[in-house]
Predict the structure.
Amino acid sequence: MAKRGGATEADVVIADGENLSVQIRLGAVDRLSKAREKRLGLRVFVGTRSATTSTSDFSPESLNRLVGETCTLANAVVEDPVSGLPAAEQLAKEQPDLDLYDETKLETDKQIDLAKRAEAAAMALDERITNSEGADFDSSSGRVVLGNSHGFVGEYRSSSYSLAVSPVAVDPVSGAMQRDAWYEVQRKFSKMDTPESIGIEAARRAVRRLGARKVATKRVPVVFDQETAGSLLGNLCSAASGYSLYKGASFLTGQLGKQLAPEYVTVYDDGRMLGGLGSRPFDGEGLPTRKNTIVEQGVLKSYLLDTYSGRKLGLPSTGNASRSVGESPSVGPTNFYLVPGTKSPEDIIKTVKDGLYVTELIGFGINMVTGDYSRGAGGFWIENGELAYPVEEITIAGNLKQMFKDIEIIGSDLVFRGRITSPTIKIAEMMIAGN
Amino acid sequence: MGQLIPLDSFGVTERDLVGALGRVKVRDVDYADLYFESCISESVSMEESLVKRATKSISQGVGVRATAGEKTGFAYSDELTRKDLELAADTARYIASSPAGTQPIPVPVHARPSRDLYPVSQGQVEVATADRVALLNQIDAEARRYDPRIKNVLASFNTEYKVVMVATSDGTLIGDVQPLSRLQVTCIAEEQGNRQIGSFGGGGRIGFEFYRERDRYLNYAREAARIAILNLSAVDAPAGVMPVVLGGGWPGILLHEAIGHGLEADFNRKKTSAFSALLGKRVASDVCTIVDDGTLPGRRGSLNMDDEGTPTSRTTLIERGILRGYITDKLNARLMGIPVTGNGRRESYQSIVLPRMTNTFMLAGQSAPEDIIKSVSQGLYAVSFGGGQVDITNGKFVFSASEAYLIEDGRITKPVKGATLIGSGPEILTKVSMVGHDLQLDEGIGTCGKEGQSVPVGVGLPTIRIDEITVGGTQAR
C-alpha cells in the first residue's frame, strides 16, 4: 500500500497487548486498572527521505489516509543519504523462542491477594513501619509484529509480572519518615519469589534509613550497591548509544578501542538470554539480536548501533535497534550487564575505612557530553569496614570517565532485576558534598 | 468562552454516555466519569544542519473511572463503540462490591468552559511542515553564526492538538481543545577537544506565530549557543554549604520540587508527605508567597478546565511563609473534606487522574536583583537548571544547574560547571532572606513526571537569596 503512495521502502510495526494492574494500600484495594491496546507504526522512505507515523485506528480508511500522510511528510524533509532499511541479507532468518512468554493469566482476585500478602509482610516486619505507599502487582502480555518491504515478517510474544512494595517507616522519637521500596519483575509467573520476601526486603530497606543524617564535605571511597551500580552502568549504556556518538553528544566519542576502565571490567549486552527481561529474537529493524561485547578487559570494544547510527559512524549495526511504535528506530540495550567479580558486598565494604555506601540516587545531574556527574545520594556511612549510620541530603560528584577508571572492586552479586544490571562496585574516590 | 465539543466528534451519543455512566455508577460507587480524548501530535527535528526526521501520531480513546471510598477502578479502550464503553464500565466498577444494575443518571448538561485561555485555531497549530522546516533551518544558521565553535545544532519542534470531553456521574458534560507546542534548541560547542552543551527553548498553548514574534526562535538559537560557549570556560563547581542566589524564571523548579509535589493532596491524604502535618504552620520565611495558577493565558501549564471538568484556579500554597493549602483533584478533595482546586490531571485517556501542579511560582518581593547579588560574599548564582527530583516522604529534593556562576565579594565572576543543589523541602524556604521584584515565568518547556505520567507544567520565580544550601560540586573550598 505504501509503495502505491510513492514510497520506495517501508516497514510496519504492530504492538498489541493487555495489562491488569492492582494497587493495595493498607490492606485494601486502592486502585485497579485493566487495559487492552493496540498501535500501528509506519515508516516510509521516498528515496532517501523518510517519515514515521502511528495510529490506534486500524480501519482500512484510516490506514489508507495514514499512508498518504506519511508519504507527504517524508516529502517535506530533506534527503538523507544514509537513511533506509537494512540490507535484505542482514535480516533475521530464524526467530528462536527465547522463552519470553507465559500463558498464565492471573485472576484479579489472585493479584489482589499477592499484593496484599506482600504489603502485610512489610507492615508486620517492624513496629516502626506504620504507613504505606502501597503494593502493586502488574501483569501484562503482548505481541510485536514487524514487517518490511524486503519481505521480512517477524513476530514474538512476551509477558511480564511485577510486584513492588513501598512501605513508610516513622522514627518514634523525631517523627521523621522514610520510604523505600523493593520489587521483582519476571517474564514467567512461576519464577516470582514469594510476595512475603519482597515485602520484608522493602520494609528492611525503609527501616534502616531511619535516623539518617548529613555528613561533612570530603573526598572518600564510594561503594555503589546493585541498584545504584546499575544506574552507573545505565550511564555507560547511554554514552555508548550510536545516536549520542555521531552527534558528538557523548563522552565516549572517539574512545572505541581505548582503555576505559581497569582490565577486570567486562560488559556485555546479550539479546539472546533465555527469559531475559531485555531479550528479543530480532531487533526493531528485523536484524537478529546477539551477544555483543561492549567492554572487554577495560577496553571499549563496541558501541550500541542500529542501521542508521552505524552508517553514520561507518560501522555495521549491532542489532540494537529499538523501536517504539510512533518513532523512527533508535538504539537500546537488551540485557546489558557488568561481569561479576569474586567479592561479596560485605567483603567490599570491609575494604573501606571511611567512606560511603550508596543505596539511592536522585536527580539528573549528569552531563553526557562531558561525563560530569553530580547527583543527590543516600545510603550509609562506612567506618572501619562496617556500615555505621544512614546518611541523606548529600551529593556525590565526579566525572564518569574518571569513575570508570577508578572502579577498584567488582562484587560477585550479579542478579538480573532489569535490562541493565550490575553487581556491587567500589569506586576509589569521589567528592561528597554535605555539611 | 471555550468551545463546545460536539458529541459526534467522538462518534458517541448522549444515550451511550448515560448508558455507560449508569452501568458504572452502581450503589457503592461515589463518582464515575468518562474521559474522551483525541490527540494529534507532530514533530520535526534537525541535526547536522538537516531537517531529516518527521513524525506524526494519531490517538483516540476513552478512559472510564469509578471511585468508591478510597478505591479507584479504571479501564480504557481505544475503540469508542457502545460495546467497548460498556465493557470498560463493567471493569471500572469491579472495585465496588455492588451488583450490576442501572442506576438513573442525570442527563448531563452539555457545557463549555467559561473562559478560553488559549484561543488558538487548529490551523494556527497545524502549520505546513515546510514552514517548520524553514524555522529549524534558520535556527541552525543563527546558532552557527553566533560562534564558529558551535559544531552541531540539534533542534526539534513538537506540536500537539488535543480535544477532550468529560462526562461525569454528577451531571457534567464538558470539553476543551488544548493546543500545545514546544521548540527546543541544543548546541554543542567544541574547542581543542573540550566539548560542551547548551540548551534553550520555549513554548506554550499558543500558535505557530508565537515563535516568530520578536524573533523568539532566533533568540532560542542564540541562547543555546551562548550557554554552550560559556561552558567551554566553566570551572569546577564548589562543594559544600553556601549561600545561593537563584535567578528569575526557570529556577522556579525549586518550588516545584521542594514544596509543590509535597503539597499534592494524594500524598497528604495518605500522610506520606513531609508536609502532611504542617498545614497552618511556618514552612518558609515571611517574604515567600507561593501560588499554583492554572489560569494564566497561553502558558504551558494552564488549562481552561482540568481533566475532571473542574475549572482551574489560582491556589495559594504558602502565604507569607505559612502553609495554606493543598492542590486537589475530586477524589482527594472529597476524602479530605477540602475544596477542589482544579488540579486533577492525567497524561492521556490511558492514565488515571492525579493531583498535579499547573504553573507554580513565587510572587514578587521588594528587593532589587542587583542588591541580592551584592549581599553575597562567597556563593553561587544559578540562572538555569536541568531536571530535578524529590523524595516526597523525607522531603529531600535535588535540582541540577546548567548555567551558574561563582559570586565573589558581591560580584558575579567565573561560570561554573553543572552542580546539583540538594536540600530539604520543609526547611529550604525558611532560608530565603531576600526576594526580588523581578518575577519571571519560565519560557514554557517544563514537563513533570509522577507515577510514570508526564504532563506539561510551568514554573516562575523572582531573583531570590537562599542563605544556605548544599552545592554538590567537586572542589573542596
Observations:
- Chain B has two domains: 7-232, 239-472.
- Chain B touches chain A through 77 residues (CB under 8 Å).
- The radius of gyration of chain B is 24 Å.
